[in-house]
């Protein structure tokens, strides 16, 4: 090998090192010149065939060449590593001064607003607010409420039955039973939650909706207490001018029973009587059934001889009127265009 060749090799190698765009390419250059069968390594391997004089000179020359390539590789590697790090830092950079993306703020659902108003009114009157199971048994949803299996009232509330014989509660009246079994009189409670009916949906019927149930039991509780309480609720909901009207009605768990309506002074349109729900004096059969359940659970019979009233109402009806929502199906379709209108403070 001539000195010219060695010079050529050096120029080529240093150029290749300088031109390597990244670390893998640089590694390839290293292999090409200094690897086991690299160009410089091969030349070194040939030294043995040279006469001693020539060998020393050539050996020194090749060593200088190898060191020069190694030095260039080391330098280039440092540069490439810094560049790679800079690139990564730049790509991962987080500009904390950028303005944030606007996230749509949620709002209270109209049903939740009305339920919140209602429970607030009753809490201020000293009622306990409770919730209960949506999967219920026949005993608490029907039997103990004086609705035996053959009773036509069962047809009024078409039921979702589960395979194990339980059901999705058709009303929150189940909580009257549950509460009385575990609490002694006198008591004042309201219970709110979801109820389910197996029926075709339309603008005023959904298969799932909410109810608020109220129950007061003690000594000498009368129909006048019931009416006064509902009038107080109406004033809390619709202002001091609100009035309540009763119409005789029938529910198996109350006697006498009534439907009640509230006079709604609509500031935005036609004022009218708003049918809100049912109510009445707790039926003696219900109190007896509760005592039976208590006895079976090892508790004292304490309800027979007491008197009380109960009521149940649907908050969706109130929300539809209050907020001018024309179709109950809008409530649970979760369309953001509907719910978006209830952001912020809507009175
Ligand atoms: N549970 C009845 C229903 O869902 C509503 C009701 C009526 C509840 C009269 C009561 C009541 O507590 O006394 O239709």
Radius of gyration: 43 Å
Spatial strand arrangement across the major sheet: 1-4-5-9-8-7-6
Describe the largest sheet. Answer: 7 strands, mixed
Dominant shape: elongated
The CATH architecture category of the largest domain equals 2-Layer Sandwich
CATH class of the largest domain: Alpha Beta
Any idea of the CATH topology of the largest domain?
Answer: BirA Bifunctional Protein, domain 2
What's the helical proportion of residues?
40-55%
**Fraction in beta strands:** 15-25%
Task: List how many beta strands DSSP finds.
Answer: 9
| Helix-strand sequence | HHHHHEEHHEHEEHEEEHEHH
Count helical runs: 12
For CATH, the homologous superfamily of the largest domain is named as Bira Bifunctional Protein, Domain 2
Short description:
This protein is α+β, with helices and mostly antiparallel strands and 347 residues long.
Structural commentary:
The protein has 347 residues and is of the alpha+beta class. It has two domains: 3-91; 110-346, BirA Bifunctional Protein, domain 2, CATH 3.30.930. Helix content is 43%, strand content 18%. It has helices at 3-19, 23-34, 39-45, 52-91, 110-124, 138-141, 153-156, 174-182, 223-238, 284-296, 315-323, 336-339; strands at residues 128-130, 135-136, 167-168, 187-196, 208-218, 243-249, 254-264, 272-282, 307-313. The strands form two sheets. Strands 1-4-5-9-8-7-6 form a seven-stranded mixed beta sheet, sandwiched between helices. A two-stranded antiparallel ribbon has the order 2-3. The longest helix has 40 residues, at 52-91. The model has no long low-confidence stretch (mean pLDDT 91). 3,4-dihydroxyphenylalanine (DAH) binds next to strand 8 and strand 9.
